[in-house]
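User: Sequence in, structure out. Go.
Assistant: Echoing your sequence, followed by the structure tokens.
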Amino acid sequence: CLAIAHATLFIIDPVFFEYEIAKYLGWQFLDIDTSILFGIVGLTLTIPLLMTSNTLSVRFLGGNNWKRVHWLVYPAFISIAFHRFLRVGDSWDDIRPYIELGLLMGSYIL
């Protein structure tokens, strides 16, 4: 839910949309900033997880198929971590993304 809210707020922001998204809507889509591309991939992988995270989906898909769909959490997590890591900027001196990535990985392992 938060990822969809995050993406929606950036898309409806006219300044961000004009400078970061609108110029890539044609054939130049793969020329988009790498961090935004990782965010789009992470959001796309999160949508099936959001739609199948309920008891009805578990019954409809069956346990094994539901687990197979929810393996998408791993590539989604990696994509979202790269999105966050790359959005900070070009400076390798900023330690904050390293700390955040370490905390995310640590919480994910636990």
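User: And one key feature?
Assistant: The mean pLDDT is 79.
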